[in-house]
Amino acid sequence: MQGQPLPKDNPPLPNPPRRPGLVPRILSWLFATGGGEARGGGFSTQEELFRIRGELAVLRAGLEAVRAGVGRRDIATLEELLRAGNRREIEALIRDRTQTVPLPDGSVLCRALGRFKMFVDAADPGIAPHLLLDGYWQYWVTEFICRNLSRGEVAWDIGAIYGYYTILMADLVGAEGRVLAYEPNPWLHWLLGRNLFLNGLGAIATAKRLAAVEAAEEAVTLPAMLTGPADGPFAAEFTEANGRRVHTAPGVALEEAETAGVDFIRIGTAAIADRAVAGMGGVLDRNPNLRILLDFDAARCREAAAMLAALAARFPLRVVDGDSFARPTTVEELLERRRVATLYLSRLEPR
């Protein structure tokens, strides 16, 4: 092999006598744990290092061939993402498409899920870093929604923030479906609207600046983690109360929002999740096959035990684990062990 250039494009690999894998051979050479190929065996150090370098070069050439054929192309649909392979392969494809552009209004333009353009808050230490560097947020939840939401269905995204899940849902339900998004924070609601417009989803998804609570209120006071630039157009909407930034928004019970039925609801407002659930009794009664994805945080709910007891009386309690599959849980486990979880609530078995 010496003196001959290594092939670069999908080279045909020779069929030599079967040898141990590359990693075991490296370990064997380093620690002299193997047989004839360990240090002091049949091959000299120089010969073994030369062989290892050659095999690594062939592996790199193969990886470049994969990137050229797959990794750098646009991802057409979410269905294609799910067909692309296992989770690590999909995440790698999405990361390979990330790109960011800082803007003078305090936002950053990035690419999510390999194809959607999104504005996020440059000062956000929570969700934005994941979108900027990885191109996705809570991939296990993303994959679960992809499996359990179908074309033509109606979905609600309560506590939409930038609209990551709103956009995901709109793409899944298509032009035949509808998505309703609630985001009470005025700065985030503005970014949400821009993201829907930017991705051409205004005909499918509607964004409203409302807070989901147990009954209609003119002004619900809510904490404001993100407020945009201090001299921005929404600065006057945020005030100080008890040492923290807050804002107000109109409150509405979810049972008052329904017009023609709903199939899937994501409730991402962990701080007021119990209030949102308390206001959706009529929605649950009128939609027996409703599927709910609920962000639960025992420390942030005012009455976590009462909310879980009410939900357990209607649905089997399930938690969506890191592998994106929903598994049974109990009120005790959620209150004493997990404390923070994504719940799946439905009479229907999850996919």
Key attributes of the depicted protein:
single chain; about 350 residues; alpha/beta; Rossmann fold; 2 domains; 4-stranded mixed sheet; 13 helices; about 35% helix; globular; disordered N terminus
The number of distinct helices, counting runs of at least 4 residues, comes to 13
Largest sheet, spatial ordering of strands = 6-5-4-11-12-15-13-14
The share of residues in helices is: 25-40%
In sequence order, what are the helices and strands, one letter per element? HHHHEEEHHEHEHEEEEEHEHHEHEEHE
CATH class of the largest domain, anyone? Answer: Alpha Beta
Shape: globular
- Parts with pLDDT < 50 across at least 5 consecutive residues: 1-17, 33-42
The CATH homologous superfamily name of the largest domain equals: Vaccinia Virus protein VP39
What's the alpha carbon Rg, rounded to whole Å? 26 Å
Q: Strand portion, in percent?
A: 15-25%
Number of strands: 15
What is the domain total for the residues?
A: 2
Largest sheet report: 8 strands, mixed
Q: Find the CATH topology of the largest domain.
A: Rossmann fold
Quaternary state of the chains:
single chain
- Structural classification: alpha/beta
- Chain-averaged pLDDT: 85
GO molecular function: methyltransferase activity
Protein name: FkbM family methyltransferase
Keywords: Methyltransferase, Transferase
GO biological process, one term: methylation
